[in-house]
Design a protein that fits this description.
Helix content is about 45%, strand content about 10%. With about 300 residues, it is an alpha/beta fold. The protein has a seven-stranded parallel β-sheet, sandwiched between helices. β1, α1 and β2 form a beta-alpha-beta unit. It is globular. The termini are far apart. Belongs to the short-chain dehydrogenases/reductases (SDR) family. GO terms for molecular function: secoisolariciresinol dehydrogenase activity. Its EC number is 1.1.1.331. Pfam families: adh_short_C2.
């Protein structure tokens, strides 16, 4: 029987939790008995989430994951406030421009890498250090992307995080979503100009996936993170849990140029760093092509 409160008494730190998947995870984790630190750069939204959930179960901490000092301070804040750190969900990420590889703005790409890759590495580094120092057999989860598993590359390697922390009983896994109409996707300039509402995006994605009758919501990704955070996944380490509603099963319907761009960008990213938190953020490009024919 599954415990109703799967995270009873545990303390979780979630980045990018002022909205979308991170917010859904924060609400779900609290619902299952956890104390949660919501970390984000969107202070007003973060405070609203805390007020909505209840300040007795969660708190907000400003954290720009591209600033390693802020990451370290956020980990220290969590430890000082709650006395421990059992779960880290490194979820903060940005999409970046929708341009193809040939039109890539390298400064914009560096920003994506700084947030999605280096920010995740910094969070794993400092939360991992804290867990090791306190002999906490914790769980570290990263949001990646199902797009990163295409093009014959397979699930991304976790050598830097998995092998370094596994010896201390700390598990590192990632959730790879695809096709979730989060505020981040809906407000991306290349998609926002089409004025598409979340319901339309969700229905469009659902219509081409292999799993019919299901529309993915941020909470579906949060449920996957809850599983990886709980003791029910105690023997799971270095796993890439794809939550895409079967969309990748029909990925061949996407234009070939999108997949070529995906492979090139991923190969470049992996050459920079190989870690669970690497996020290709190819999702918007795929979504763009899904809707472009309708919105021209």
């Amino acid at each position: 029987m599954i415990n109703k409160y799967r995270l009873e008494g545990k303390v979780a730190l979630i980045t990018g939790a002022a909205g979308g998947i991170g917010e859904a995870a924060a609400r779900l984790f609290v619902e299952h008995g956890a104390f949660v630190v919501i970390a984000d750069v969107k202070d007003e939204l973060g405070d609203q989430v805390v007020a909505s959930i209840g300040p007795e179960r969660c708190s907000y901490k400003h954290c720009d994951v591209t600033d390693e000092k802020q990451v370290e301070e956020t980990v220290v804040y969590t430890l000082d406030k709650y006395g421990t750190l059992d779960i880290v969900y490194s979820n903060a990420g940005i999409l970046g421009p929708l341009a193809g590889v040939l039109d890539t703005d390298m400064k914009a790409l560096d920003k994506v890498i700084d947030v999605n890759v280096c920010g995740g590495v910094a969070m794993i580094k400092h939360s991992g250090r804290a867990m090791v120092a306190r002999n906490i057999h914790g769980s570290i989860i990263c949001t990646a992307s199902a797009g990163a598993t295409r093009g014959g590359l397979g699930p991304l390697g976790y050598t830097a995080s998995k092998h370094a922390l596994g010896a201390y009983g700390i598990r590192v896994n990632c959730v790879s979503p695809l096709g979730v109409a989060t505020p981040m996707i809906c407000t991306t300039p290349g998609i926002k100009r089409f004025q598409l509402d979340p319901d339309f995006i969700e229905q469009k994605i659902s219509s081409v996936s292999s799993l019919k009758g299901m529309v993915m919501k941020p909470k579906d990704i949060a449920e996957a993170a809850l599983f990886l955070a709980s003791d029910e996944s105690a023997c799971i380490n270095g796993h890439n849990l794809v939550v895409d509603g079967g969309l990748c099963d029909v990925i061949d319907t996407f234009p070939v140029n999108v997949l070529k761009g995906a492979v090139e960008l991923l190969q470049w990213s992996i050459s920079r760093v190989t870690v669970a938190s690497i996020l290709s953020k190819l999702v918007p490009r795929c979504i763009y092509d899904l809707f472009s024919s309708k919105c021209r």
